């Protein structure tokens, strides 16, 4: 299996990434429930799409699997920040 190395610049802070991570996790954890909780008024997938997906030209994610895929991308970005592969532009 090969991986594609890609460089991208996002106008998003680590705090925003962490909040998107939490919002996606809440929506995933409550997806099967009747309540389908949301952390914010705007659904987490829409926030992900606006701040990350659209600038990177990612396809639109939908449903439970889409939330899981978006969460994996957000976690990857956070890991890159932690281990120094990505940097915060000030």
Task: Explain how this protein is built.
The chain starts with 13 loop residues before the first helix and ends in a 7-residue tail after the last helix. The chain has helices spanning 14-29, 44-53, 63-83. It is globular, with a radius of gyration of 13 Å. The protein has one domain. The model has no long low-confidence stretch (mean pLDDT 87). The protein is mainly α and 90 residues long. Helix content is 52%, strand content 0%. The longest helix is centred in the last third of the chain and has 21 residues, at 63-83.
Task: Walk me through the topology.
Layout lengths: L13 H16 L14 H10 L9 H21 L7
Count the domains.
Answer: 1
End-to-end Cα distance, whole Å, is 35 Å
Global outline: globular
* Distinct helical segment count: 3
Largest sheet: none
Mean pLDDT rating: 87
**β-strand number:** 0
Low-confidence stretches: none
Order of helices and strands: HHH
Pairing-aware structural class of the strands and helices?
A: mainly alpha
- Please compute the radius of gyration using only Cα atoms: 13 Å
How helix-rich are the residues, as a percent range? 40-55%
Determine the strand fraction and express it as a percent band: under 5%
Output the keywords.
90 residues, mainly alpha, 3 helices
Short characterization:
With 90 residues, the protein is mostly helical.
